[in-house]
Amino acid sequence: MDRRSRLRVEKCEELLSAAQQEHDDRLKQLQQVAPTHARRHATAVAAIVLAGHPRIDESLRLAWARALQHYGVDNKDQVAASQLLRPKIIGDGEESTRFTEIFRTAPAWLLHFTAMAMDARLLKFDLPSNISDTFKWGSAGYEDARRWPLLPMGTITAGDPIPASDPRRLWIILACEITEPIPNVDDFNQKDEEVRSRCERDDPLIRDMFLALDLDGKPESKWSAYERRRMRKLSKWMGL
User: Residue 43 belongs to what H/E stretch?
Assistant: First the structure.
């Protein structure tokens, strides 16, 4: 390798190192602010559960408006409203206990649509076992749910139906069904090493999950026959 090639390699290594550091810093920052976002979001959803009378066939914005009216909150900004709602809903009790109690009888579709599993992971409260139920999602409903930590405003089924084999189902599972605590940055780095190691051992499941993430946002009509086959296999493994 000549001197020019070595300099190029060193430059690439520097850029990769800087990119990894930026990734870690952003992840740490996210982990620091995420509980605050989750707390405000969970409070808003709790208000809907308690006083919004949500319906799966009705835009969630209407249930949110009813909840605000019930609690006498005029500010429709979610962040400001959640701060006003918190003492009315949580009171002086323990946060995790109160959230567990409120969401115990909440409609499962509402917990899915509002991605409450992320709040439960971050704030360490329990959700009912039916959080793992499978629901019919629409493409517009999916995009609406991804507004988290803002509330979705429409319906879960809005838009074209999302097939069981669609890679968007992977985000739904991770954000709306899995309630185990999220790992810290060091754990993420360790997991990255484990994933790379498993990929090196030619693990087809890991490769299919990576492909699902790559296909997120790509219309199913544009998938190749090969991509369709692999997504059907992943969907079968997930039990969809």
Answer: helix 3-51
C-alpha neighbours within 13 Å on the C-beta side of residue 29: 6
Domain boundaries of the chain, sorted by first residue = 3-238
pLDDT of residue 222: 79
Q: Taking 90 as the threshold, does the pLDDT of residue 43 lie above it?
A: yes
Q: Which residue, 133, 174, 139, 167, is CA-closest to 154?
A: 139
For 220, half-sphere exposure in the C-beta direction (CA atoms, 13 angstrom radius) is 16
**What is the value of pTM for the model shown?**
0.68
* Alpha helices, DSSP H, located in 72-184: 78-89, 95-103, 108-113, 116-123, 139-145, 168-176
Does residue 99 contact residue 19 with C-beta atoms inside 8 Å?
A: no
Q: Whole-angstrom Cα distance, residue 105 to residue 127?
A: 9
Residues of the chain by 3-state class (helix, strand, coil), percent to 5: 65, 0, 30
CA 85 to chain centre: 23
Residue type, 77: D
CA-CA-CA-CA dihedral for 157, 163, 169, 173, to nearest 10: 70
pLDDT at 234 over 70: no
CB 44 within 8 A of CB 78: yes
Nearest CA among 173, 170, 141 for reference residue 56: 141
Dump pLDDT digits (tens) for 65-83: 999 999 999 877 999 999 9
